[in-house]
Amino acid sequence: MSRVTSLPKEAPLLVAAHSCIRRCRAAMVLGIAASVIAGCASYTPKPIEPSNTAAVLEQRTLDEPALAQFIEAALPDRAAASASQNWDLSTLTLAALYFHPEMEVSRAKLALARAGVKTARQIPNPTLSFQPGQYPAMTDVASPWSVGFLVSFVLEIAGKREKRIEQARNLVEAARQDIATAAWQVRGGVRSSLLDLWAAEGRLRLVERRQTVQAQVVTLLEGRFVAGETSALDVARERINLSQARLSLRDTERQAAEARARLAAALGVPVRAIESVRLSLAAFDRPAETPDVTDLAAGSLRRKALLERTDVLGLLAEYEAAQSGLRLEVAKQFPNISLGPGYTYDQGFDLYTFGLSVELPIFNQNQGPIAEAEARRKEAAARFVALQAKIIGDIDRAIASYRGGTRAVATADTLVQSQIRRRQQIDRAFRLGEVDRLAVLTTDLEQAVIELARFEAIVQQREALALIEDALQHSMFDGGSLYIRLPEKMPAKVQSNARP
Questions:
Q1: Please, what are the domains in the chain?
Q2: Rounded Cα gap, residues 313 and 474, in angstroms
Q3: Is 249 exposed, middle or buried (0-12, 13-18, 19+ CB in 10 A)?
Q4: Nearest Cα to 220, choosing from 244, 246, 239?
């Protein structure tokens, strides 16, 4: 038996009102959707053209105006013009910080870490559920339609968002310290290649002198051999020595060329870019700072290196990030809450709902991710201790090498002074006619060999000083270290210049 209910007289007005409300709600939903779509980011393709990047790398020079601005910003007391005419260790280090691709990689990692902070700050978006429906037409209802909307909001509890942000900020600090570490590594590459060039050029001068004296000895003995005053064996022996001296000269020239190529690679420019400039190697003739071995062994510099080296600070930041990650995983034991206010238009009736949902931690309480986070923290602590142990070993090895090099230089100085006195005695004897020209040349050969040995000892001492600089991250060959902190201070007008 069907039941027929008569509609009230106000029904048409109610239907019209409900229809207007539905249109307004639909317009509101469409407006929200349009605003969300308008705020979305779009993808912009940026393909890499290998030919273009290679061309830019090949065209790099040390006279670029942007590089001059960069050096002037780092060293205001130096005019850009004078820096471009005479490139020393400091200005070449700045050029490497400007050009070297490893610096670009480190800056890109920093940008990635900063983007991670933006990601960590994001609040979960609400979800919108739409549930349309239709009932069979009935004469006693205002509308056969049923339309429902449900909006769900996620409430993060236990400070999860704050802990995510803290972890991301620690990773940003680690990336910042990685930039400074990369800067020291780039400087180390420039210094090592420049030191090799200094050693090769100094060795080349001494080998040329030795070859000149050896050639004079061969000429003298060949004349005596023609006159029957010496044996063929003596001439052959000195000719062999001359051949070895010539080969040593060519090998030294090769070392100098390779050092220039390594210097160009350390700068991030083609080798022809440094062939047209004047290089100053005075920093290795007289280092700006002579280390106190006692202080290095157990003093402030050693402690400062163990506590304040950029890689130490970077690993400390990574450890703090691991701790933040552990706190985040512990907080995830407490499930988030989802709140869902909703509205349903059901056959002419307005129904309002409010839902609440929460994940039940029955089968697990996030033990697995917590264990992983604890393991990551333990790994970060182990890497930190390993780094400090490595620093201690590097400092001790550098001290031992420097002490040995200093003793070798002192011994070589004594031998050189002794040889100088012997040469003076031979000169007096030669003037008195007590010895011949061959004795003088032989003394010159001995002095050339001893001076070359002394120079090799000095090179070893300078290399040990470079090891100390690397171990302490403290400049020894040139004063000041402002340029080491420059990667984040690059002027915007310099950053905007075209570089791959």
A1: 13-37+84-472 (1.20.1600.10)
A2: 15
A3: middle
A4: 239
Rounded distance, CA 283 to CA 420, Å?
27
Classified as helix, coil or strand, 79 is coil
Cα-flanking dihedrals φ and ψ of residue 127, to 5°?
-110, 145
- Burial status of residue 198 (CB atoms within 10 A of its CB: 0-12, 13-18, 19 or more): buried
42: which DSSP letter?
-
Pairing of strands 337-346, 127-134: unpaired
Model pLDDT for residues 441-500, shown as the tens digit of each residue? 999 999 999 999 999 999 999 999 999 999 999 889 986 554 444 545 454 444 444 333
Which secondary structure element, helix H or strand E, spans residue 422, and what is its range? helix 367-431
N- to C-terminal Cα distance for the chain?
84
CA proximity to 258, closest of 186, 203, 181, 187: 203
User: Could you say which residues of the chain have pLDDT below 70?
Assistant: 1-39, 77-85, 133-144, 479-500
Q: Angle, to 10 degrees, between the axis of helix 232-267 and the axis of helix 160-226?
A: 160
Owner of token pair 């333990």: 378
Say how many residues make up the chain.
Answer: 500
Q: Which amino acid is at 161?
A: R
Of 78, 83, 73, nearest in space to 486 by CA = 73
DSSP class of 487 = G
Task: Dump pLDDT digits (tens) for 372-426.
Answer: 999 999 999 999 999 999 999 999 999 999 999 999 999 999 999 999 999 999 9
Reading the block at residue 487, the tokens are: 């990667």
Q: Tokens 């912009």 correspond to what residue?
A: 44
Cβ proximity of 249 and 427 under 8 Å = no
Could you tell me the sign of the dihedral formed by the alpha carbons of 93, 98, 100, 106, in that order? Answer: positive
pTM value? Answer: 0.82
With beta carbons less than 8 A apart as the criterion, state whether 179 and 487 touch.
Answer: yes
Who's near 155: CB < 8 A, 6+ residues apart? 336, 337, 338, 339
